[in-house]
Prior knowledge:
CATH architecture of the largest domain: 3-Layer(aba) Sandwich
Number of domains: 2
Helix content: 25-40%
Strand content: 15-25%
Largest sheet: 8 strands, mixed
Number of helices: 11
Mean pLDDT: 92
Shape: globular
Number of strands: 14
Low-confidence stretches: none
Strand order of the largest sheet: 3-4-2-1-5-6-7-8
Amino acid sequence: xxxxxxxxxxxxxxxxxxxxxxxxxxxxxxxxxxxxxxxxxxxxxxxxxxxxxxxxxxxxxxxxxxxxxxxxxxxxxxxxxxxxxxxxxxxxxxxxxxxxxxxxxxxxxxxxxxxxxxxxxxxxxxxxxxxxxxxxxxxxxxxxxxxxxxxxxxxxxxxxxxxxxxxxxxxxxxxxxxxxxxxxxxxxxxxxxxxxxxxxxxxxxxxxxxxxxxxxxxxxxxxxxxxxxxxxxxxxxxxxxxxxxxxxxxxxxxxxxxxxxxxxxxxxxxxxxxxxxxxxxxxxxxxxxxxxxxxxxxxxxxxxxxxxxxxxxxxxxxxxxxxxxxxxxxxxxxxxxxxxxxxxxxxxxxxxxxxxxxxxxxxxxxxxxxxxxxxxxxxxxxxxx
Length: 385
């Protein structure tokens, strides 16, 4: 008998709910996104199955962070109380970005949907709650409704579909499904304009593990002034070409940008590969300032609320430098215009002079997950359009 969610549902650990997460991430990956932390919390409340999509032989050419898991694809593996399955196919559909290839692109997506893994079908049938992360996951909404019409369906809008370059076929699938989702979670009210429904929208920001602020850990830095950048999204190496020249006494540390060192970097720039999340947090905690070097001033406004690196910087009390478009209403951020050396100079100087400390209280992931499951209990989930 399936468990139904309502305002009286007990959300404490051990509720026995069966959750299915559909995502282009993999729960076992060292790089963590919000869907990983949500899944960890769901695992405290019931059984979680994490089905990873859009992985194939083509992934070798895209620097897919799941490549290290390729040998473990197409088999169920339990990891940290979560059942994981990385569905690997010969090829996977992708946005060709060519109008003259649109027909072939459509055929690829149709084929991918029609040949859904038997494991996915089985896990859909067993689920009480199905979470679809923004991206390719909504492609399987109709399949989920046909196999399990009573399951609650939650859309996790991590990004705007245009921003992440989702193919037209997938966007149309989401537009058709949007009014039929049980709930659409938006981490920023700025995303509401991109959703073709209004009645099922809920505002639930990204969370953070409050334990990150606890305890002491040794600094990974030597003496001097240190600035850190983490992650690869919209990474702009030219920021560091400019900043390293203007601030020779600041050591810039670039973690997990997915690019080799730019030839224009000064000797005060060090590039590192991917790090485990906890290790990355330690580099943030002890930095003098954090950098979010997004490529363009035209970055979407919702990143002010959804950028995990900026959230971590603020929570850990580290002043941040970022494009003015994503400063938002955070007093701990200092904006610059990408490509404008003088504005980069001014932003870095202001950040270096700023006091340390968070600008607001951030929800922890347990509070976020409670709001996902029973948003009716929380007034702060309402979106007023």
